[in-house]
Design brief:
Helix content is about 65%, strand content about 0%. The protein is an all-alpha fold and about 90 residues long.
Amino acid sequence: MKATNNQVIDQFIIEVSLIAPIEKIINQLNKGEFRDCDIKWLDTKLENFIEFAAKTLGITAIKPSQVGKDRLNDYVLNQYLEKFKTLLNYFKNL
């Protein structure tokens, strides 16, 4: 994502491309809308958001270990929620 010279446009881009998608994932996790077969997708999304957050900090991201492995049980669900909520808070404060 390339920053513009207009703060309003930059904030809109952050909202649409980062905050809204993460909020949607968190809501879906809370509603139990994901299944075991979605773990790879969740891991990919998590990795991409972490990589982008690291770039905004000027650091190289370390690829996160797969959170889910193969079961989306309560422990794994809470791990995803924690990580996505942390990213959401970070992007809201950019």
